[in-house]
């Protein structure tokens, strides 16, 4: 039997092959899909253009430079009602980020504690944590935010309850924090020998804070060098030099020295007139959102942590014990590094959820991005299309940044399989 | 020898002593408490702290609940009752009693309450064959009819609107069956094209003509009369049932080899997942008028259902993609080796396994969707939370918070907890590996 190289006769192209030949079918489908997509997009754009024309509107973002004319209760940067809509949007964005970071921190702490305790041998605590997780997971966030808002405004004492020799309410944490129905007042860190603030055209970051951050970053870096040196010595001689006192000195020394040099002290809130003065005023809206989002998402994080720890097979613990490791070391060196790989990705997507859920701030009047740019600005200027597009774009950028960070983490932590 | 032995040993027990009870610390409640509550100092501290928390909650809530007043028409009446009894304030459940219908149905006409109730009752036989294997399979036909029936019952109006909509699906199915001999592809295309042509071209006139000829119908209820848990259930159930198939399609699209299909799916999924639901709802309420031909407007609840469905479908797609990724490569290859085409392989081999793996995630998405129906309050629909604000705004019930929150939260808890328990049951039922 002779085998020839060009056994099959060259097939001539027939039109039906576009549908039935798998080599061409995917192109046919894709070109068809592309045509439908373009038709759909053209239809939407045409509708939009005609609708805008009918309303006598144009498509421009110039409204961002008009005077906003509304006040924002919580201002991380300088703002008043004579400034522009763009500035208001920035304030809203910063409020969103402040809330997101605070809620993420709270949710992580609550979630990790609850997740670990749910696995505890202690019957009481495990049941209690199960109740917490189930109750919070199965009831909408919005309801929790409203509940915490109501607790703050309805169940907390008014400022004048703190007055008098025998007050009905008293401040907590050594008389430093006042929880009232108008918000929570916490001490404000201040510097007597302040370096002043950097002027960046409208934004004035405090030089003290920058200096503090730089010093802390440098100490962490120096500490890393010390630890690396210790590891080198250990590799060379087999004995690891004691580093804890060096680390402690390096980490804390410069920071304390800097704070002392700048004259660091706390300004405590004081009852003056009808209200508390001094200190940082955290409004009820912020507290309600913070507790609502933090404790609600904490229940989800608890489940992630629990499943992450359970995902590490029992054999790992037994192997570590067989090597003679103590329980503490087993947890730190064997279980946690593996559990982290399972826990971190869902943890980050919970952070993403928190960031998106900050848009519920409207329910308690928290002035976040959605309430400023996507709320009052749109109502005042009538620029729904532009405002919503800009807002979605900003949320999208935040989300993509966070999920980009997650992808980097995942690829770094991925099991290197050969 | 034995003689000697008998004398040298002082005492030999000849009978078993009766079994003694274990020491008090090693049995019963004490043992259990030592092992589960007080094993170590940390555990003891935790137990004491937990007891404090439980005590604190019970001590706060217990007396408040003990002083419940069920029969009152306003908050001031409740206060009067407490004052007469010389008690501090308690729970005033009169608000639930007084406004129960509103919380359940919103402003749905009271003489038509039987319709949503009937729709809800009929949902049980409609869901039965889908949820449980022991329900007769024949009932699946009722499940197929149910969406149209539920629409008719809830909104009312002429019966011909849901009937013509359903006829589109029937026509599609008929085209698929009739054209099967001509080949799979023409039949599939026809199955998609025929219903679309029917809905666009013929459905409107047909419904109008039939209404003229045979005016069967019940009282029409406008969407803005819907409210309370009725609206949550309508949006939640439709969103749940629509988002799963859409999510499967998106997940398959994202796994596709076709660059264009894949990138469209990726962009869609990432966009939807990247923005908060509330912005999509605002798009539905504010912007949709821009994107539709001038002069058209359609029902707000329908818009919300579409947006919620799209939102949940993007999350669903990611969950199902996880299930697909967890499936061993051999399953795909086995399907190919059997000579199954793409859709058959998906339907018979891949999806049953991938969906089984993804059950917890799918149900979590369902639960999330159901909870997210509360966000419609921001675009002016009166869901339970919106109604609780409205009730609080009335002079009778000004200043009532906890009773409403507890009631709404309890109802949501029952639904969501039920769903998560069902998912556990399903996982157990479908488990095929031997552990």
Question: Your description of this structure?
Answer:
The complex is a heterodimer of chains A (418) and B (435). Chain A has a domain of 61 residues. In chain A, 63% of the residues lie in helices and 6% in strands. Chain A has 12 helices and 7 strands. In chain A, strands 1-2-7 form a 3-stranded antiparallel sheet. In chain A, helix 3 packs antiparallel against helix 4 and helix 3 crosses helix 8. The longest helix of chain A is centred in the N-terminal third of the chain and has 34 residues. The model of chain A has no long low-confidence stretch (mean pLDDT 84). Chain B has 435 residues and is mainly α. Among the domains of chain B are: 71 residues, no CATH class; 219 residues, MetI-like fold. Chain B contains 17 helices and 2 strands. Chain B has a two-stranded antiparallel ribbon. In chain B, helix 11 crosses helix 13, helix 13 packs across helix 15 and helix 14 crosses helix 15. In chain B, 30% of the residues are buried. The mean pLDDT of chain B is 86. The chains are: A mainly alpha (418), B mainly alpha (435).
Task: Give the count of helical stretches of chain B.
Answer: 17
Kindly provide the radius of gyration of chain A, computed on alpha-carbon positions and rounded to a whole number of angstroms.
29 Å
Order of the strands making up the biggest sheet of chain A: 1-2-7
CATH topology of the domain at 99-106 and 225-435 in chain B: MetI-like fold
Task: Estimate the helix proportion of chain A, in percent.
Answer: 55-70%
- How many beta-strand runs of chain A? 7
Largest sheet composition of chain B: 2 strands, antiparallel
Biggest interface, chains and residues, is: A-B, 55 and 57 residues
The helix/strand order of chain A is HHHHHEEEHHEEEEHHHHH
**End-to-end gap of chain B:** 59 Å
Uncertain runs of chain B are: none
The percent range for helix content of chain B is over 70%
Report the biggest beta sheet of chain A as strand number plus sense, adding barrel if it closes. Answer: 3 strands, antiparallel
- Annotation field: number of helices of chain A: 12
Let me know the average pLDDT of chain A. 84
